[in-house]
Amino acid sequence: MDDATRCPCLTGLPYGECCGPLHRGERSAPTAEALMRSRYSAFAAGEADYLRATWHPSTRPGSLELEPGRRWRRLDILGTRAGGPFDDAGEVEFVAFFADDDGTRGQLAERSRFVRDAGTWFYVDGDVRS
Ligand SMILES: [Zn+2]
C-alpha cells in the first residue's frame, strides 16, 4: 500500500504516518486501540503476516487465510476500556464494514480483548456480536 494513500483505518492520516510503520515493524502500537486499527488496516491491505505477529501466542491460529475478494471499507470504533500506555490489558469494541466481489455487503461487530506483554500489545480474542 502506498504511503501517501489515506490509511484504511480512517484516522484521516496517510498510511505512511498511521498504520504503515506498524505493519513494517518500524514502530509498535502504543495503545490497544492503535493495535486494533492497525490490524483492521492489515486486513484491508492484505498484511497476513502482521495479523499473525500481533496475535497473542496463546490464541494465535496455525495459519491465517484472508477472505479473497473482500474489501474492508470502513472501521467504526464504538468504545474502549483501558488499553492505554500504562495498562496491561484492554478492550476495544468496533464495527467493520466490508463488501465482497460478488456484491455482498456485511459487517463484523466485535468486542476484542488485548494484552500487553513486555511492552507489546497483542490481540487475544473477541466476542462477535450480531
Ligand atoms: Zn491507520
Would you write up a description of this structure?
This protein is an alpha+beta fold. The chain has one domain: Nuclear Transport Factor 2, Chain: A, CATH 3.10.450. It contains three helices and four strands; from the N terminus they run H-H-H-E-E-E-E. It has helices at about 20-25, 30-45, 50-55; strands at about 70-80, 90-100, 105-115, 120-130. A four-stranded antiparallel β-sheet has the order 1-2-3-4, covered by helices on one side. It is globular, with a radius of gyration of 14 Å. The mean pLDDT is about 95. The structure holds zinc ion (ZN). Zinc ion (ZN) binds next to helix 2.
Backbone CA Rg: 14 Å
Structural class: alpha+beta
Which CATH architecture is right? Roll
Average residue pLDDT: 96
Main sheet attributes: strand count, strand direction, barrel closure: 4 strands, antiparallel
Please give the share of residues in helix.
10-25%
Amino- and carboxy-terminal Cα gap: 31 Å
**The CATH C-level class name:** Alpha Beta
User: How many DSSP helices?
Assistant: 3
The tally of domains stands at 1
Percent in strands? 35-45%
Unreliable residue runs: none
Strand order of the largest sheet: 1-2-3-4
Shape: globular
Tell how many strands the DSSP assignment holds.
4
Bound molecules: zinc ion
- CATH fold assignment: Nuclear Transport Factor 2, Chain: A
Question: What's the SSE pattern?
Answer: HHHEEEE
List the keywords.
alpha+beta; binds zinc ion; Nuclear Transport Factor 2, Chain: A; four-stranded antiparallel beta sheet
